[in-house]
Specification:
Blueprint lengths: L1 H17 L3 H12 L4 H5 L11 H37 L18 H14 L4 E2 L5 E3 H4 L24 E3 L5 H9 L4 E10 L10 E11 L4 H15 L6 E8 L2 E10 L16 E10 L1 H6 L8 E8 H9 L12 H5 L5
Helix pairs in contact: 1-4, 2-4, 5-8, 5-10
The protein binds 3,4-dihydroxyphenylalanine.
The site of 3,4-dihydroxyphenylalanine (DAH) has 11 residues, from strand 8 and strand 9.
Length: 341
């Protein structure tokens, strides 16, 4: 019997040597000391042992079980350590490897310019009011002092849905809608898409404008000049100057076209400004009294200034873009240039 015990222990030891994973170890351990293991099976021979030797026999089997279990436990500790180390090695991260580049989008140049215009005017106390893109003849023309059949309508040939409903050709209806709702003091910007039946390198059938309107007591052309002088300094650079040229818009009287000193040659004359040193950026003027009155504002008490600028135009001047269509083609190579990270 003694011999059998020794043999079993030797067999377990030999088998233990061959084991290289804790998972296999667990199964082999059960084969010896588990419920139906070989050591446990020895106890079944108890009935053949003379009664006076049974206690000693039981103790021997138990001791053997403890010894074999300990051998397995020791090996288990070693294997677990080895496996943990292998796991660490496999999962090792080299923090010095350069990261793969993350592709990020960029803000569209029209939005960069729009945000800058908002910043400039909102810093001077303007609020933003958005009007509808599809509007009526009344708001687009009549309330802006452009009666039906007035020749000035040719300046803004747009897309009609019915005789009375059209895609707005400018953001100037924002003036009227604001004045109908609110008494002075008024200081608003009205941005958005506008539509015209035009399509070439400098005109697009859809483009963006921002309308500005100030109505209060004693508003004059001087205020307009001061406001726009401040704006162009923020938009272009500190040295940029403005000049007013007389013009005509039915909704303003007097009306002006506003030029800025060329941002490329600073007034010396270059291809961008066609040698003049000046570039036209917007139309503006003192709100025509008829427009104030039609919108319910007493023109004997209040006066207003208004201006309308094209975001595409300012963007093209600022970034030296010669074809308006590049702004809408979504060519990633073009748009990437504006990524200012
Ligand atoms: N609505 C004009 C246009 O689309 C731009 C404009 C000119 C707006 C003069 C104004 C203004 O408010 O006073 O061409």
């Amino acid at each position: 019997m003694q011999e059998k015990f020794v043999q079993l222990k030797e067999k377990a030891k030999a088998e233990l040597e061959t084991i290289t994973s804790s998972k296999v170890l667990f199964d082999v351990k059960a084969k010896y000391v588990g419920k139906s293991g070989e050591v446990t099976a020895l106890l079944r021979g108890m009935k053949d042992v003379p009664a006076d030797q049974r206690a000693a026999f039981g103790k021997m089997v138990n001791d053997l079980k403890v010894e074999i279990s300990e051998l397995f436990n020791e090996k288990e500790v070693l294997l677990k350590e080895k496996e943990l180390q292998e796991k660490f090695d496999a999962e090792k991260v080299d923090v010095t490897i350069p990261a793969s580049p993350v592709a990020s989008g960029s803000i569209h140049p029209l939005n960069i310019v729009k945000n800058k215009i908002f910043d400039a005017f909102c810093g001077m106390g303007f609020e933003v009011f958005e009007g509808p893109e599809i509007d009526t003849d009344y708001y687009c023309f009549q309330a802006l002092n452009i009666p039906k059949d007035h020749p000035a309508r040719d300046m803004q040939d747009t897309f009609y849905i019915t005789d009375n409903i059209l895609l707005r050709p400018h953001t100037s209806p924002g003036q009227v809608r604001t004045m109908e709702k609110k008494q002075p003091p008024i200081k608003i910007l009205s941005p958005g898409r506008v539509y015209r039946a035009d399509d070439d390198a400098s005109h697009s059938p859809m483009f963006h404008q921002i309308e500005g309107l100030v109505v209060d007591k004693g508003v004059s052309l001087c205020d307009l000049k001061g406001l726009l002088d401040e704006f162009v300094k923020i938009m272009f650079d500190e040295d940029t100057k403005t000049r007013f040229r007389p013009s005509y818009f039915p909704f303003t009287e007097p009306s002006v076209e506003v030029d800025v000193t060329c941002c490329k040659c600073h007034g010396k004359g270059c291809n961008l400004c066609k040698g003049t040193g000046w570039i036209e950026i917007l139309g503006a003027g003192i709100v025509n009294k008829n427009v104030l009155e039609m919108s319910g504002i007493d023109s004997n008490v209040y006066s207003g200034l208004a201006f309308g600028l094209g975001i595409e135009r300012i963007t093209m001047i600022k970034y030296g873009i010669s074809d308006i269509r590049t702004l809408f083609e979504n060519n990633v190579k073009f748009l990437k240039q504006f990524n200012r990270r």
